[in-house]
Amino acid sequence: MKGVNMGLLEGRTSIITGAAQGIGFAIAEVFAGEGSRVVIGDLDASAADRASKMIGGSTIGVRCDVADAGDIDALITTAIASFGSVDVLVNNAGITRDATMRKMTEAQFDDVISVHLKGTWLGTRAASAVMRDQDSGGSIINMSSISGKVGLLGQTNYSAAKAGIVGLTKAAAKEVGFAGVRVNAIQPGLIRTPMTEGMRDDILAARLAEIPLGRVGDPSEVAQVALFLASDMSSYMTGAVLEVTGGRHM
Protein backbone atom coordinates (compact mmCIF):
# COMPACT_ATOMS: atom_id res chain seq x y z
CA MET A 1 0.00 0.00 0.00
CA LYS A 2 1.35 3.42 -0.94
CA GLY A 3 2.69 5.34 2.02
CA VAL A 4 3.08 2.28 4.25
CA ASN A 5 6.63 1.26 5.15
CA MET A 6 6.96 -2.51 5.31
CA GLY A 7 9.49 -4.01 7.71
CA LEU A 8 12.43 -5.92 6.29
CA LEU A 9 11.08 -9.16 7.78
CA GLU A 10 7.38 -8.52 7.30
CA GLY A 11 5.35 -11.73 7.12
CA ARG A 12 8.25 -13.98 8.14
CA THR A 13 8.71 -16.21 11.16
CA SER A 14 12.03 -16.12 13.00
CA ILE A 15 13.29 -18.52 15.65
CA ILE A 16 16.09 -17.29 17.91
CA THR A 17 17.63 -19.63 20.46
CA GLY A 18 19.08 -18.38 23.73
CA ALA A 19 17.03 -15.21 23.23
CA ALA A 20 15.78 -14.57 26.77
CA GLN A 21 18.69 -12.17 27.34
CA GLY A 22 21.82 -10.65 25.86
CA ILE A 23 22.56 -10.76 22.14
CA GLY A 24 19.68 -13.15 21.45
CA PHE A 25 17.15 -10.82 23.07
CA ALA A 26 18.52 -7.87 21.09
CA ILE A 27 18.09 -9.85 17.87
CA ALA A 28 14.54 -10.82 18.81
CA GLU A 29 13.69 -7.15 19.49
CA VAL A 30 15.12 -5.95 16.18
CA PHE A 31 13.43 -8.73 14.19
CA ALA A 32 10.05 -8.06 15.80
CA GLY A 33 10.49 -4.36 15.05
CA GLU A 34 10.98 -5.24 11.38
CA GLY A 35 7.68 -7.12 11.22
CA SER A 36 8.78 -10.67 11.97
CA ARG A 37 6.81 -13.11 14.05
CA VAL A 38 9.30 -14.28 16.68
CA VAL A 39 9.79 -17.53 18.57
CA ILE A 40 12.17 -17.22 21.51
CA GLY A 41 13.75 -20.54 22.41
CA ASP A 42 15.52 -20.72 25.75
CA LEU A 43 16.47 -23.33 28.33
CA ASP A 44 14.71 -21.21 30.96
CA ALA A 45 11.00 -21.40 30.09
CA SER A 46 9.95 -18.60 32.44
CA ALA A 47 12.68 -16.30 31.13
CA ALA A 48 11.60 -17.04 27.55
CA ASP A 49 8.02 -16.19 28.45
CA ARG A 50 9.07 -12.95 30.16
CA ALA A 51 11.17 -11.95 27.17
CA SER A 52 8.31 -12.61 24.76
CA LYS A 53 5.99 -10.41 26.84
CA MET A 54 8.58 -7.63 26.94
CA ILE A 55 8.84 -7.61 23.16
CA GLY A 56 5.11 -8.07 22.61
CA GLY A 57 3.33 -8.44 19.29
CA SER A 58 3.49 -11.82 17.60
CA THR A 59 6.16 -13.19 19.92
CA ILE A 60 6.12 -16.42 21.92
CA GLY A 61 8.55 -18.09 24.29
CA VAL A 62 9.32 -21.82 24.18
CA ARG A 63 11.55 -23.90 26.44
CA CYS A 64 14.29 -25.53 24.42
CA ASP A 65 17.49 -27.40 25.20
CA VAL A 66 19.35 -26.92 21.90
CA ALA A 67 21.49 -30.01 22.55
CA ASP A 68 18.35 -32.17 22.52
CA ALA A 69 17.06 -33.15 19.07
CA GLY A 70 13.56 -33.66 20.43
CA ASP A 71 13.48 -30.15 21.87
CA ILE A 72 14.70 -28.67 18.58
CA ASP A 73 12.03 -30.55 16.63
CA ALA A 74 9.39 -29.34 19.09
CA LEU A 75 10.62 -25.76 18.69
CA ILE A 76 10.27 -25.98 14.90
CA THR A 77 6.86 -27.64 15.20
CA THR A 78 5.63 -24.94 17.60
CA ALA A 79 6.76 -22.19 15.24
CA ILE A 80 4.90 -23.75 12.32
CA ALA A 81 1.78 -24.44 14.38
CA SER A 82 1.75 -20.89 15.74
CA PHE A 83 2.79 -18.88 12.71
CA GLY A 84 2.71 -21.17 9.65
CA SER A 85 6.35 -21.14 8.57
CA VAL A 86 10.02 -21.04 9.56
CA ASP A 87 11.79 -18.40 7.52
CA VAL A 88 14.74 -17.46 9.75
CA LEU A 89 16.67 -19.37 12.40
CA VAL A 90 19.35 -17.80 14.57
CA ASN A 91 21.41 -20.43 16.39
CA ASN A 92 22.49 -18.18 19.25
CA ALA A 93 22.23 -20.26 22.44
CA GLY A 94 25.51 -20.83 24.23
CA ILE A 95 27.35 -21.38 27.48
CA THR A 96 30.90 -20.92 28.75
CA ARG A 97 32.92 -23.26 30.95
CA ASP A 98 36.29 -21.51 30.84
CA ALA A 99 39.39 -23.15 32.29
CA THR A 100 42.91 -23.94 31.17
CA MET A 101 43.37 -27.38 29.60
CA ARG A 102 45.17 -28.54 32.72
CA LYS A 103 42.13 -27.76 34.86
CA MET A 104 39.28 -28.27 32.40
CA THR A 105 37.21 -31.40 33.00
CA GLU A 106 35.86 -33.64 30.26
CA ALA A 107 32.37 -32.60 31.30
CA GLN A 108 33.23 -28.92 30.83
CA PHE A 109 34.57 -29.67 27.37
CA ASP A 110 31.65 -31.88 26.38
CA ASP A 111 29.00 -29.45 27.66
CA VAL A 112 30.31 -26.55 25.59
CA ILE A 113 30.73 -28.63 22.44
CA SER A 114 27.25 -30.09 22.90
CA VAL A 115 25.44 -26.76 23.31
CA HIS A 116 27.36 -24.73 20.73
CA LEU A 117 28.40 -27.15 18.02
CA LYS A 118 25.89 -29.97 18.28
CA GLY A 119 23.11 -27.50 19.09
CA THR A 120 23.91 -25.45 15.99
CA TRP A 121 24.02 -28.60 13.86
CA LEU A 122 20.67 -29.82 15.21
CA GLY A 123 19.06 -26.43 14.60
CA THR A 124 20.52 -26.08 11.11
CA ARG A 125 19.47 -29.59 10.17
CA ALA A 126 15.89 -29.22 11.41
CA ALA A 127 15.26 -25.71 10.07
CA SER A 128 16.80 -26.37 6.65
CA ALA A 129 14.61 -29.47 6.24
CA VAL A 130 11.55 -27.23 6.56
CA MET A 131 12.96 -24.29 4.59
CA ARG A 132 13.96 -26.34 1.56
CA ASP A 133 10.31 -27.32 1.07
CA GLN A 134 9.16 -23.69 1.17
CA ASP A 135 9.06 -21.74 -2.08
CA SER A 136 10.73 -18.82 -0.30
CA GLY A 137 13.65 -20.82 1.08
CA GLY A 138 15.06 -19.30 4.27
CA SER A 139 17.99 -17.85 6.17
CA ILE A 140 19.99 -19.58 8.92
CA ILE A 141 22.38 -17.50 11.00
CA ASN A 142 24.91 -19.27 13.20
CA MET A 143 26.59 -17.43 16.06
CA SER A 144 30.31 -18.11 16.09
CA SER A 145 32.83 -15.91 17.93
CA ILE A 146 36.14 -14.20 17.36
CA SER A 147 37.40 -16.89 19.75
CA GLY A 148 36.77 -19.36 16.94
CA LYS A 149 39.09 -17.39 14.67
CA VAL A 150 42.07 -16.73 16.93
CA GLY A 151 41.65 -19.02 19.95
CA LEU A 152 41.58 -17.52 23.43
CA LEU A 153 43.35 -18.62 26.59
CA GLY A 154 41.19 -20.79 28.82
CA GLN A 155 38.74 -21.49 26.02
CA THR A 156 39.94 -24.62 24.24
CA ASN A 157 36.37 -25.93 24.45
CA TYR A 158 34.67 -22.67 23.39
CA SER A 159 37.22 -21.82 20.67
CA ALA A 160 36.94 -25.33 19.23
CA ALA A 161 33.14 -25.16 19.18
CA LYS A 162 33.05 -21.69 17.63
CA ALA A 163 35.62 -22.64 14.97
CA GLY A 164 33.56 -25.76 14.24
CA ILE A 165 30.48 -23.62 13.68
CA VAL A 166 32.31 -21.85 10.83
CA GLY A 167 33.05 -25.15 9.10
CA LEU A 168 29.51 -26.37 9.72
CA THR A 169 28.10 -23.15 8.25
CA LYS A 170 30.10 -23.42 5.05
CA ALA A 171 29.34 -27.12 4.54
CA ALA A 172 25.62 -26.64 5.21
CA ALA A 173 25.50 -23.65 2.85
CA LYS A 174 26.79 -25.89 0.05
CA GLU A 175 24.22 -28.57 0.82
CA VAL A 176 21.06 -26.48 0.88
CA GLY A 177 21.83 -23.52 -1.38
CA PHE A 178 20.05 -25.17 -4.32
CA ALA A 179 16.76 -24.81 -2.40
CA GLY A 180 17.22 -21.10 -1.69
CA VAL A 181 18.31 -21.72 1.90
CA ARG A 182 21.18 -19.45 2.95
CA VAL A 183 23.48 -20.27 5.87
CA ASN A 184 25.81 -17.60 7.24
CA ALA A 185 27.70 -16.95 10.47
CA ILE A 186 28.50 -14.00 12.72
CA GLN A 187 31.64 -13.71 14.85
CA PRO A 188 31.07 -11.14 17.62
CA GLY A 189 33.99 -9.76 19.58
CA LEU A 190 33.82 -7.99 22.93
CA ILE A 191 30.12 -7.21 23.36
CA ARG A 192 28.44 -5.58 26.37
CA THR A 193 26.66 -8.44 28.16
CA PRO A 194 26.29 -9.46 31.83
CA MET A 195 29.43 -11.58 31.36
CA THR A 196 31.62 -8.70 30.13
CA GLU A 197 30.17 -6.22 32.62
CA GLY A 198 31.56 -8.40 35.42
CA MET A 199 35.06 -8.40 33.93
CA ARG A 200 37.99 -7.14 36.02
CA ASP A 201 39.10 -3.62 35.11
CA ASP A 202 42.63 -4.68 34.13
CA ILE A 203 41.37 -7.47 31.86
CA LEU A 204 38.82 -5.17 30.24
CA ALA A 205 41.50 -2.52 29.64
CA ALA A 206 43.78 -5.08 28.00
CA ARG A 207 41.04 -6.22 25.66
CA LEU A 208 39.98 -2.69 24.79
CA ALA A 209 43.58 -1.99 23.79
CA GLU A 210 43.18 -4.64 21.06
CA ILE A 211 40.15 -2.93 19.52
CA PRO A 212 40.81 -0.24 16.88
CA LEU A 213 37.40 1.36 17.51
CA GLY A 214 38.37 1.60 21.19
CA ARG A 215 35.10 0.51 22.77
CA VAL A 216 32.96 -2.45 23.71
CA GLY A 217 30.23 -3.35 21.23
CA ASP A 218 26.52 -3.24 22.01
CA PRO A 219 24.21 -6.25 21.49
CA SER A 220 22.12 -4.10 19.15
CA GLU A 221 25.11 -3.81 16.82
CA VAL A 222 25.25 -7.59 16.47
CA ALA A 223 21.47 -7.63 16.01
CA GLN A 224 21.69 -5.25 13.05
CA VAL A 225 24.13 -7.59 11.30
CA ALA A 226 21.79 -10.51 12.01
CA LEU A 227 18.96 -8.47 10.46
CA PHE A 228 21.07 -7.92 7.35
CA LEU A 229 21.69 -11.66 7.03
CA ALA A 230 18.05 -12.54 7.73
CA SER A 231 16.66 -10.09 5.19
CA ASP A 232 16.73 -9.82 1.41
CA MET A 233 19.56 -7.28 1.72
CA SER A 234 21.92 -10.29 1.80
CA SER A 235 20.03 -12.37 -0.80
CA TYR A 236 23.20 -13.33 -2.68
CA MET A 237 25.26 -14.22 0.39
CA THR A 238 25.73 -17.69 1.81
CA GLY A 239 28.59 -19.41 3.61
CA ALA A 240 29.86 -16.01 4.74
CA VAL A 241 31.38 -15.21 8.14
CA LEU A 242 30.89 -11.60 9.28
CA GLU A 243 33.06 -10.24 12.11
CA VAL A 244 31.43 -7.75 14.50
CA THR A 245 34.48 -6.92 16.58
CA GLY A 246 35.35 -3.23 16.23
CA GLY A 247 38.39 -4.44 14.30
CA ARG A 248 39.76 -6.66 17.05
CA HIS A 249 41.91 -9.50 15.69
CA MET A 250 41.36 -8.42 12.08
UniProtKB/TrEMBL annotation:
Classification via SUPFAM superfamilies: NAD(P)-binding Rossmann-fold domains (SSF51735)
Keyword Oxidoreductase found: yes
Keyword match Oxidoreductase: yes
GO BP terms, alphabetized: fatty acid elongation
Pfam families (UniProt xref): adh_short_C2
InterPro entries with a match to the protein in the record: KR_dom (IPR057326), NAD(P)-bd_dom_sf (IPR036291), Sc_DH/Rdtase_CS (IPR020904), SDR_fam (IPR002347)
Ranges for domain Ketoreductase: 12-194
Alphabetically ordered keywords of this record: Oxidoreductase
GO molecular function: oxidoreductase activity, acting on the CH-OH group of donors, NAD or NADP as acceptor
PANTHER family on file: 3-OXOACYL-[ACYL-CARRIER-PROTEIN] REDUCTASE, CHLOROPLASTIC, SHORT-CHAIN DEHYDROGENASES/REDUCTASES FAMILY MEMBER
Assigned protein family: Belongs to the short-chain dehydrogenases/reductases (SDR) family.
Name this protein carries in UniProt: 3-oxoacyl-[acyl-carrier-protein] reductase
The organism of origin for this protein: Agromyces bauzanensis
